[in-house]
Amino acid sequence: MKHVTLHEEIAVVLTARDNRWMTAEEIAHAVNDRGRFRTIYGGPAAAKHVRARVADRFYRHLFERDGNGIRLAR
Q1: Taking a C-beta distance cutoff of 8 angstroms, is the pair 10, 27 a contact?
Q2: Considering the entire predicted model, what is its pTM?
Q3: Where are the domains of the chain?
Q4: 10 Å Cβ neighbour count for 68?
Q5: Dihedral of the CA atoms 52, 54, 60, 64 (nearest 10)?
C-alpha cells in the first residue's frame, strides 16, 4: 500500500464532509476510521498531530483555521 501522508488524509476527510469546519479531534477520529494513515511509530493520528500539521509552515497554506475549526483553504 502506498504511504499516505497526514495532510493528504486531512484533505480527503474535509472534502468528504463538504469542507465544513471540523475540530482536530473530529479530523483525527475520521482519519483513524479510514485506516490508511499511521504515524512513523505505527500509531494512530492524534488531535495534536492534526493541529501540528495544519500549522506547519509547509502545509498551512492548504488549510484555514478559526478558533478550534479547521477546513481546506478556499
Answers
A1: yes
A2: 0.94
A3: 6-72
A4: 13
A5: -140
CA pair distance 50, 20, nearest whole angstrom:
16
Q: Name, in order, each residue with C-beta under 8 angstroms of 32's C-beta and a sequence gap of 6 or more.
A: 44, 45
Query: Alpha-carbon distance 16 to 48, whole Å?
Result: 21
Give the whole-angstrom CA distance, residue 11 versus residue 5.
Answer: 10
Q: What is the pLDDT of residues 27-59, one digit of tens each?
A: 999 999 999 999 999 999 999 999 999 999 999
What cell numbers appear for 29 in the block? 477520529
Name the grid cell of 28.
483525527
Band of pLDDT at residue 1, cut at 50, 70 and 90? low
φ and ψ at 25, to 5 degrees? -65, -45
Q: Name residue, grid cell 477546513.
A: 71
